């Protein structure tokens, strides 16, 4: 009876234990499943870590870097040789591809070793655990930190595959000397990309993270080689390399650089500042992303042109002068800003005079006025009188009397082509008022200049300020035949994984008539053509002896500003020189700086390039006519000088010049008989 009762008690106890065990197992299963589901719901942990942002010139060279003192450059696992990851796995975590974040066997072994030694002599962290620590945690040794490490380790394993985790690890681990990640380490120690690492080089690097202050070959090559031997031995054990390869690698002579390759931009600092500003304003990025987001910023900067611009400004302006300079160059077809100088010394002043300064452009505004005139029926041969003139207005506006340079006037009619070449102010104001003062303002806006304009008679002479970069953009639109462009500093931006997050906008809009744009471009070559000399010499005479090809351009000046802007179809540039506080420019030498900087930059930048590629090619609806440069009529064999001038078909002059017939008759020698030649044969 007691035996039966005892058996029943034991059975009930067993049943209770079984039920409790089942309940416990169920509870644990539910907890684990809930934990797993929670982790899945949380999703993949963000892998945003501070990484260096690199800035590239148009040729792919690096021109600058932003970082927090730590060099970090992301490189994909596919881009590095397999022996790099083999070395890391062999020395850090041989079971990486088979465990689920924790190596229980290593943990047990580490516990036993540490208990036996009565201290920590062995670790058991897997690559996943180290990656979690690098990403999310501090290096303190509290229990809460260890629990969080375990939590993040599980999140990584659940949400990322092994290759992604390994890629993250090799890109975040410290290799000492401020180098984080295999790419930064390879650049620092060997001066090359991790893509090019040999087995010997990779095995040295794989041994460093154990103790960067000990195993860095810069600190101790002997200890680094000793650690390399362990790495190579581990690689042999895992079958990654053969004993023969290990021996060859251990004997390979290595050369260590010990220098980071990229630094804060020393070249083109004003350009660099502008790019960072545009990353915020156009790409919509915040300061932290720009500084530490591991971005690759591909810019339009042409390193050769930038060097030329900086050198030319330095050579041209006297060291003793306080004159400042703003310079920019652009590809008219794309709007790419290829060079930028915002001042003579960035360390003295970071104010960017090319993109921020608003100065009166003077006569450089006239080409924009004459484009409006072409649209309203003017041609290069349209004549107006150049003489002292006072304009009086019936609407209560004050009288206005413009003056030509040195008060020189033709006191007769001149053509629009000659007026532009000589920079006649009276002709410009007459044209401005004839068109209506809104015409110039509207044209200025069409050409991308957004700075506020004063709608007054003197606007034709450039009395409302513009930024040099705006004027350059306007000239570029003329140069490319009237297609809208905007200044492009950033071509594209990639995130640390290579995904494009910003690209330059593609603009396809015709804002000027291509025929009128070409006619204007050719008129702008006149400032360098002595055939257009008249009551004064053409304004480009002082630099004509430095020219090796045809340019279109326009100079401009006020009491405190000196400008020169111009282009070929492939390159446009603008120069402003003056005093920051608007002091009057009095020295003749100072007044010539802008023109000399401009021509020297253009000549050196285009040196060796085929002139045909930079030639002005007329569109189909344009025709060339030889005209007398003084009266604008069709030239004949009696004209001592003619200039081939372009007109939109149907607007070319039809009247022949007869002003020189009497001179031709005087030159004839009656008794000498000669074969009659056509007039064009005599000209050529």
Shape: elongated
| Share in helix | 40-55%
- Computed over alpha carbons, the radius of gyration is 38 Å
Strand order of the largest sheet: 2-1-5-10-11
The CATH C-level class name of the largest domain: Alpha Beta
**Share in β-strands:** 5-15%
Extended strand count: 16
- Which superfamily, in CATH terms, is the homologous superfamily of the largest domain? DD-peptidase/beta-lactamase superfamily
The biggest sheet, with number of strands, parallel, antiparallel or mixed sense and barrel status, is: 5 strands, mixed
Can you offer a commentary on this structure?
There is one protein chain. With 684 residues, the chain is an alpha+beta fold. 40% of the residues lie in helices and 12% in strands. It has helices spanning 2-42, 82-92, 104-117, 127-136, 143-159, 162-172, 182-190, 199-207, 212-215, 221-237, 243-251, 269-281, 287-292, 303-316, 366-375, 416-422, 425-435, 437-446, 468-479, 514-524, 588-591, 593-606, 661-667, 679-683, and strands at residues 53-56, 62-66, 71-72, 179-180, 296-299, 324-330, 337-341, 383-386, 412-415, 490-494, 500-503, 552-557, 561-568, 571-578, 622-627, 643-648. A hairpin with a 5-residue loop joins strand 1 and strand 2 (62-66). The chain is elongated. Residues 118-122 and 671-684 have low confidence and may be disordered.
């Amino acid at each position: 009876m007691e035996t039966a009762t005892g058996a029943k008690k034991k059975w009930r106890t067993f049943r209770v234990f079984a039920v409790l065990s089942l309940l416990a197992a169920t509870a644990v299963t539910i907890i684990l499943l809930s934990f797993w589901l929670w982790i899945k719901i949380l999703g993949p942990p963000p892998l945003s870590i501070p990484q260096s942002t690199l800035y590239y010139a148009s040729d792919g060279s690096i021109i600058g870097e932003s970082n927090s003192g730590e060099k970090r450059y992301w490189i994909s696992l596919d881009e590095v040789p397999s022996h790099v990851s083999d070395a890391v796995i062999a020395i850090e975590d041989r079971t990486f591809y088979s465990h689920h974040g924790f190596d229980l066997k290593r943990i047990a072994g580490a516990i036993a070793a540490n208990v036996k030694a009565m201290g920590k002599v062995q670790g058991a962290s897997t690559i996943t655990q180290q990656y979690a620590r690098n990403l999310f945690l501090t290096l303190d040794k509290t229990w809460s930190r260890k629990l969080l490490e375990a939590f993040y380790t599980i999140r990584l394993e659940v949400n990322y595959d092994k290759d992604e985790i390994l890629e993250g690890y090799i890109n975040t681990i410290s290799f000492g000397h401020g180098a984080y990640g295999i790419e930064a380490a390879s650049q620092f120690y060997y001066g090359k990309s991790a893509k090019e690492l040999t087995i010997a080089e990779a095995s040295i690097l794989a041994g460093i993270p154990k103790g960067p202050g000990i195993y860095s070959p810069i600190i101790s090559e002997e200890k680094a080689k000793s650690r390399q031997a362990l790495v190579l031995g581990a690689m042999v054990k895992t079958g990654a390399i053969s004993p023969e390869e290990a021996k060859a690698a251990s004997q390979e002579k290595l050369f260590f650089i010990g220098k980071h390759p990229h630094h804060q931009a020393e070249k083109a600092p004003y350009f660099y500042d502008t790019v960072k500003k545009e990353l915020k304003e156009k790409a919509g990025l915040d300061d932290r992303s720009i500084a530490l987001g591991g971005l690759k910023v591909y810019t339009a900067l042409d390193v050769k042109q930038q060097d030329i611009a900086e050198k030319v400004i330095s050579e041209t302006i006297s060291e003793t002068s306080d004159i400042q300079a703003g310079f920019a160059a652009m590809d008219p077809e794309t709007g790419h800003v290829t060079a930028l100088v915002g001042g003579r010394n960035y360390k003295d002043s970071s104010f960017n005079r090319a993109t921020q300064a608003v100065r009166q452009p003077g006569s450089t505004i006239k080409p924009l006025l004459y484009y409006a005139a072409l649209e309203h029926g003017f041609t290069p041969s349209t004549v107006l009188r150049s003489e002292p003139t006072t304009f009086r207005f019936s609407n209560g506006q004050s009288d206005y009397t413009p003056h030509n340079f040195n008060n020189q006037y033709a006191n007769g009619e001149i053509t629009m082509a000659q007026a532009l070449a000589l920079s006649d102010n009276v002709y410009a104001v007459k044209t401005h008022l004839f068109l209506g003062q809104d015409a110039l303002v509207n044209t200025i806006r069409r050409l991308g200049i957004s700075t506020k304009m004063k709608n007054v008679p003197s606007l034709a002479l450039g009395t409302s300020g513009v930024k040099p970069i705006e004027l350059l953009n306007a000239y570029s639109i003329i140069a490319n035949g009237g297609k809208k462009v905007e200044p492009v500093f950033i071509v594209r931006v990639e995130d640390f994984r290579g995904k494009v997050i910003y690209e330059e906008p593609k603009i396809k809009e015709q804002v000027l008539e291509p025929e009128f744009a070409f006619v204007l471009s050719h008129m702008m070559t006149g400032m360098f053509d002595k055939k257009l000399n008249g009551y004064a010499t053409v304004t480009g005479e002082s630099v004509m002896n430095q020219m090796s090809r045809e340019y279109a351009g326009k100079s401009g000046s006020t009491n405190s500003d000196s400008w020169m802007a111009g282009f070929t179809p492939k390159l446009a540039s603008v120069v402003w020189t003056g005093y920051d506080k608007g002091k009057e420019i009095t020295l003749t030498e100072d007044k010539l700086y802008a023109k000399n900087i401009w021509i020297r930059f253009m000549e050196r930048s285009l040196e060796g390039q085929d002139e045909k590629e930079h030639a002005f090619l007329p569109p189909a609806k344009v025709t060339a006519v030889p005209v007398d440069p003084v009266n604008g009529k069709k030239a004949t064999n009696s004209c001592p000088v003619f200039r081939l001038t372009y007109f939109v078909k149907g607007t070319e002059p039809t009247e022949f010049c007869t002003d020189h017939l009497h001179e031709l008759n005087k030159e004839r020698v009656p008794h000498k008989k000669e074969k009659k030649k056509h007039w064009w044969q005599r000209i050529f």
